[in-house]
Amino acid sequence: MKWWKEKIGFRVVTSFPHWVTVAPRGANVRLHLCPDSRPEKGNTGYLFSTPDAAKEEARLRKKGVKITKPTKKEDWGTLFWFADPDGNEFQVIEE
Hints:
Structural class: alpha+beta
Number of helices: 2
CATH topology of the largest domain: 2,3-Dihydroxybiphenyl 1,2-Dioxygenase, domain 1
Strand order of the largest sheet: 4-7-6-5
Radius of gyration: 13 Å
């Protein structure tokens, strides 16, 4: 929970022993975190959007976020991947 708040800038929406949710400010979508169990490693299937992928990648790098695949232009869009401390990967695509 602390990582999502400090590094990514999400707000904590709910906080109970096994039920913690975080979300970007103004969002209606939340991520459910389970602080007392191990999450699965790898790709989560979550995709975030940003107006400028390279700028967002640089911002996250400065905060110490692990970038697993740097910004790259593909046929379907410009995107990069980052990982949380548990190894879960997330994609960020340019709008």
